[in-house]
Each structure stands twice: as C-alpha cells, then as structure tokens.
Amino acid sequence: MLRLKEEKELTKNCAVVTSKLPSKVYIPLIQHFGKPCDKILVRVGDVVKRGQMLAASDSGLFSPIHSSISGKVISISSYIHPNLGKANAIIIESDGRDESISFNSRSKEKIDSLKKEEIIKIIFDAGIVGLGGAGFPTHIKLNPSKPVETFILNGAECEPYLNVDYRIMVESIAEIVRGLEIIEKILSVKQIIVAIEDNKKEAIDKFQAMLLPSHWKIKVLRTRYPQGGEKQLIKSVLDREVPSGGLPFDVGVVVHNVGTVLAIYQAVYEGKPLYERIVTVTGKCLENPGNFLVRIGTTVRDLLADCGPLKKEPAKVVFGGPMMGIAQYSLDAPVIKTTSGIIFFTSEELTKRENRVCCRCARCIDVCPARIMPAIIAMAAEKERWDIAREYDVFDCIECGLCSYICPAKRDLVHLIKYAKARLKPK
Amino acid sequence: MPKPDLNQNNLVVNSAPHIEINDHIVRRMWVTLLILIPTGVAGVYIFGIRAAYVIIVSIITSIITEFVCQRLQGRETTILDGSAVLTGMLLAYNLPPTVPLWIAAVGSFFAVAIGKQIFGGLGFNIFNPALVGRAFLMASWPKYMTNWANPRWQVDAVSSATPLGVLKEKLSQPLPTYWDMFIGNRGGCIGEVCVAALLIGALILIALRYISWQIPLTFILTTGLLSWIFGKGLFKGDFLFSIMAGGVVLGAFFMATDYVTAPLTKKGKVVFGIGCGFLTFVIRKWGGYPEGVSYAILMMNAATPLIDRFSRTRKYGWKKCTKGR
Q1: SS in 3 state form for B206-275?
Q2: How many Cα atoms within 13 Å fall on the side-chain side of residue A147?
Q3: Between B315, B319, B321, which is nearest A370 by CB?
Q4: Taking a C-beta distance cutoff of 8 angstroms, is the pair A201, A161 a contact?
Q5: How far apart are CA B281 and CA B161, in angstroms?
Q6: CA B308 to CA B158: how far, in whole Å?
Q7: Phi and psi of A104, rounded to 5°?
Q8: Which of A317, A369, A376 shows the shortest C-beta gap to B316?
Q9: What is the pLDDT of residue B320?
Q10: What ipTM was predicted for this assembly?
C-alpha cells in the first residue's frame, strides 16, 4: 500500500449541491454486480413517477432499478453504459414536474418492531447496492451465510480526487448513525468499527462528537491506497486476512461503504429508493468542481451545466476514481448507482504508458496489497504463458492499479493482469 | 480563449490507472550516474589523471558498443537511457588505475556486447554486465589487472598491492589505517577506494528508494561477521578491515543491487546478500585471488532465477483465516 497524491482539495470543502433536473435520463438495466434486470415493468409510452420501480428480475443476483424523474418512457434500447460500453437502458423524458410516488416513511418505533427479514426486504426493494464502486447487491451482504461478529463502516475513501463519503460523513452524521443501528439490528454483531483515514479530520471529529454506544469504535487509519478495498480494510482494522477466494464473512466481518449506509437509512426511514446519489465531479479544467446529488441516468453533458463551464477541453473523462475508474468514450455516458466520481483530465495530465522492458526493480512487488508478483504475471501475459500467470496467482489480484502507477518503466501491469484473468476465466 | 468543442467526442480511452508516479527508469539511471560521480572524482584525485582517462575510454566504448550492437540487430538504439554509460562507468570503477587504455576499451566492449546485448539488451541479461567485463579481463590479462598503484602522493607510486593483497600474500608492507581506507588513501580499483564517497551515494540511493537495503546490509554484515569469526583464529578477525579494504562497499551498494540480475522479493534479496557475503569471504580466505566480491556477485547472479523461484511473496489471504502475522 502507498500514500498517493490526494488531489481531494479540489472539492473537499464543497458542500453537496443538488444538480439541475435533467431533461432526459438513461437508466441502464444493469447497474450492479450480477445479472441485468430482465423483468421490465414499464412499456414505451408509459408515464412514470420518481421512485417508481422500472425493472427487476424473478431470480438470481440482481437489484431492482427505479425511475429518477417523472415523465414518459420514450425508449427501451441499447445505450452507452459507463462500465460495459453498451447495455440496455430505459430512457425517460422528463415532464418537468418531478412528481414522486408516495414514499412510505417509518418512525423509529415502527422500525424497531420490524423483523430482520422485513428490513432486508425494504433494502432490496429500494434497489440498494454497494455505492463504493463494486455495486454488490446490499441485501445479499446483509444476509451472510455464516455468523458475523464485526461490522466495519468503510469511510476510508482511498481513491484520490473523490470526496463523496467524506461529505456524507460531514453533512449527514446523524443519518449514518441511524443507518448503522439498522445494520447492527440486522446482523446482530458484537462490535461496529467506523474506519476513517486520517486525511478526513472533520469526519473523524464529527464521529467523536457523537455519543456512540460503547461497543462502537472509531478506528483512524493512516491514509494509504487501496485501504478502502474490503480485504485491505479488514487487514488494516482487524489484522485479519480474508482467505484467498473467500468473502469477508469467512473471517466474521461485513463491510459497507458510508454511502451505502446512508442509502439504507433513506430506504428504511424515508421509504426512498435509490434513484439518486452523490457524485464528486472534479478536474482542473472545470470552473466549478463539486459534490453533486445527481439523479441516476443523468449524462455527463447535463452535469456540465452544474460544474462547468470548462476552462479547457478535457482530454479524458473517467467514471470512478483515478486509480480504478473507467475512461469514457462519450460525454453522453449516464451516471449509474456505482458512479462515485467523474474526473475530467486535461491533455497535460494524461498518463504516458511507454511499456518499456521490465527492469525488475520490484517496486510493484513491494507495494502490491495482494502481495502477488505483478511483474512476473505481466511478463507471462505478454508471452501468453497462462500457466505461469496462474501459478503466480493472477486471480488474487484486486486490480487496484498500484503496480501500473508505480512502475518506473511505465508498464501497463494491471492491464496485462486483467487480460490474463480474462483469458484464464472458465468459459 | 476558444470555446471547448464538446460535440466532438474525441476523448482518450485507456485503461486505469489514470494517474502515475513521477518516476522514470531513465531518470533513475542518470541520477545513479550523478551519484557515482563523486566516487570517480575521488579516484582521479587519488590516482591522478590516468584514472580519468580509463573512465572516459570505458564509457565511450560502452556507448559505441551499445549503438553498434543495436544497429546490427535492427533494434531501436537506447544509448540515451543511461544504461550503457552506467555499465562503462561501473566497469572503469572496477579497474586498477594503471591499466592500459585498450584494456578498458576491450573490457567495456565485452561487458556491453557479451554481458548485455547478446541476451537481448537491458532487462534480459543474466549477469551484471560490468562484472562480466571485469571477469573477462581478469581471465585474459591478469597481469594488467593486478598491477596496482599507490595514491599519487606516496613515495613508491607504482606496483604496490591492495590491502587485501598484502594480507593474502603476507607481504611486509604496513596495512592502511581505518581512516585511510575510509577516505581512500590506499591502493585498489579506481572506484572502490573512497569508501566515504561511496557511502554518501549509497545513502542517497536508499533514501530515494532506488535500491533496497536488504542486499547491501546482508552482504556487508555477512562478509564482516565471517571475517571476524573465521578470519584469523576464532573471533579474532577484523570486521571493519574486511569491509573497507576491498570492493565490498562498491559491490554491495552499486553492483549487487543491479535490478536485472538480483532477486525480486525482499526474502530473495536477503538470501542473495548473504550468499554474496559468504562467497566473498570464501574466495578471500581459500580462493586464489585476494578479492572475491565480483566473482561472488556473478555466482549469485547465476543463482538469482533459483532464488526467485523459492522466495515468492506470501500472498494476502494465503494462510487460512490468519489472526495476526
């Protein structure tokens, strides 16, 4: 792990602003880890309201999707997807009224009387997935197949540039604590640990100012990337290692991101499904970078109305953080549930991957959080020696990108490793 | 200011990460060269201007050889990446100041052509190129390679022996003091005599994380400890003398740490360093030469693939449900 140049100052002190209502939204049928929603509940021409469920599925790993505006469904067709290139999406034209369905808000007493399964059902119906970036359906993670004793709130936000979780902790601490109470009830854990990196002083202060139960702890971590990765966070907080190929509950832990916990609170207390999220829109070529509450399906082009005008033409637009995010081919890409940030890079900031010959300096091996040997796997991938790639445990790679970041020969190490994984995956 | 044209989707799409560290292999080469310059200056100051000629001839031959080899192979020429210059410089630092200039040229040619280019260039060579050059010269022209000089201010300026030679051949010459060896007031190769200059450079290299501490530390400690324990009667050897009298400091920090020919993992580096130190001691004590650093490193270079094989990293989550380390 390594301390990176943060670049968080660009938007660190920008309070969350609600972005302008888009005239059209493009809501992909897949915004989560799993299979796409294949049961579409609306038809072209239907009038929908904000919060109305648009699509779900009968079985399998998925999370339902909801309309983020009120208006008319004008098309259900293939559209740009920020992670997949293209995917089917429901396209809705706004009627400008932004009417919502009636949300079923609940009091604390009401929630206390609910059974665990009922709360998980509410969270499932609200379409909540891990908002840190992986998008794993939350209702699955809240129903582990093994008993867990620790819940970790992931407030590490280790990717440079991003301030989503930081702003949530600073601005919505009370809601987060309520959300944690819900999770505590569902998982019946013995302890709750709030893990925050030491570059988020204000967030740490906010938590320390709250009167927290004695079995809740605040763990301040030294800022390092990729500490916000679930497995790395468990290692840092509890000094436990999730077995290779295993999941956090194998070591008695469940981890959720700050944004996810806020969404859980909103779903359970306010009855509000996940149709909007906070996104850090940043970059040196923006006049007004900031943290925006964005409706799912809003395009980058529409968002520029809030954070623009552009001081300079962007050369690259990345969804997610700079280390793991995905470069977009179009400004018409829509924000989805897992979009934590949108970063505009100028042509001067572009990476210059030279792919020189590996000089075996072993910096990648020194920093690799999975402690595998990226240099060797990448060389094996170049020579198409998949046997060597497998022997050196290519599947333990978490794709954090540190190896490529640090390589003085500017080799695309993580790219080659991903390629090896794709080639080795059983068909 | 022209208004950015957003209707054109001419965005760059490449794979993550989208930021990179401000570090470059070429810069590392040139910085290492800069760091080695004081050592060369000290060598020239101690042995006179001839040492400078040896260094210059060696570097120029090295560059020309690299250029010609790459041209002949139809490869891109990389003489600006600093690697050839570094090889030439390190070879010169491993030569006695009295060698004929053609010896430096032949050694440098051999180092780059046979030590590096024949394997496919930088990154593919098995042995440290400069040491390959030196070993070739030692085997071919031992007379020139063992013709030492004293610092130019001493009365008998030529054909003396290195401190290790004095010890090995049981000569009647007095041995230099620790301080003399530290500042370089003694016979030896151009780049090995001034321990002070080498150490300053080495500390900068470690601080910049250009080299790791594992190889130099274990190398030096192993040689020192073994010499102390078994040097002359149990626990009567001279720890500091064994480290400073020969090429251990130059070898441990600047030759054994060569990325291409040393193991990858920390574990492997420790094994490599101990091996170098052990072999250095063995050659000095029982071998035919008074000094064994360069052969020790070359032998361990040969062992590097094996060490790499058996010193893999312990992967995250490999031991089941580990609590603690």
Answers
A1: HHCCCCCCHHHHHHHHHHHHHHHHHCCCCCCCCHHHHHHCCCHHHHHHHHCCCCCCCCCCHHHHHHHHHH
A2: 4
A3: B315
A4: no
A5: 19
A6: 44
A7: -90, 85
A8: A369
A9: 46
A10: 0.92
Nearest to B19 among A160, A372, A410 (CB): A160
Contact A350 B21 (CB under 8 A): no
Please state at what angle helix A164-171 crosses helix A173-187, rounded to 10 degrees.
Answer: 100
With CB atoms and an 8 Å threshold, state whether A326 touches B19. no
Q: Which of A216, A208, A134, A135 lies closest to A183, judged by CA?
A: A216
Please state, in angstroms and rounded to a whole number, the distance separating the CA atoms of residues A308 and A322. Answer: 20
A345 vs B18, B259, B322: nearest CB: B18
A373 Cβ contact list (under 8 Å, min separation 6): A364, A365, A392, B264, B265, B312, B313
Helix axes A258-270, A173-187, angle to 10 degrees: 80
Give tens-digit pLDDT for B127-164.
999 999 999 999 999 999 988 888 888 876 555 678 88
- Distance between alpha carbon B151 and the CA centroid of its chain, in Å? 23
Q: Count of H helices and E strands in chain B?
A: 14, 2
| DSSP single-letter state for residue B176 | P
A105-110: long-range pairs with CB below 8 Å, 24+: A105/A269, A105/A270, A105/A271, A106/A268, A106/A269, A106/A271, A108/A269
Residue B11 and residue A406: Cβ atoms within 8 Å?
Answer: no
Per-residue pLDDT tens over the stretch B20-53: 999 999 999 999 999 999 999 999 999 999 999 9
Is B11 in Cβ contact with A317 (below 8 Å)? yes
Contact A301 B6 (CB under 8 A): yes
Contact A304, A334 (CB under 8 A): no
Question: pLDDT per residue over B277-302, tens digit each?
Answer: 999 999 999 988 888 999 999 999 99
Distance CA B83, CA A180 (A): 57
Enter the pTM of the model. Answer: 0.92
Choose, out of B3, B5, B14, B19, the residue to mutate when testing the contact with A (most A CBs < 10 Å). Answer: B19
What residue in A sits closest to B315 (Cα-Cα)? Answer: A371
Geometric angle at alpha carbon B251, from B249 and B256, rounded to 5°:
130
Token code pair at residue B306? 């094996």
Contact in structure between B304 and B261 (CB atoms under 8 Å): yes
Q: Which domains does chain A carry? A: 1-21+106-350 (3.40.50.11540), 363-424 (no CATH)
Q: Do the Cβ atoms of A370 and B314 come within 8 Å?
A: no
Tell me the C-alpha distance between A28 and A64, whole Å.
11
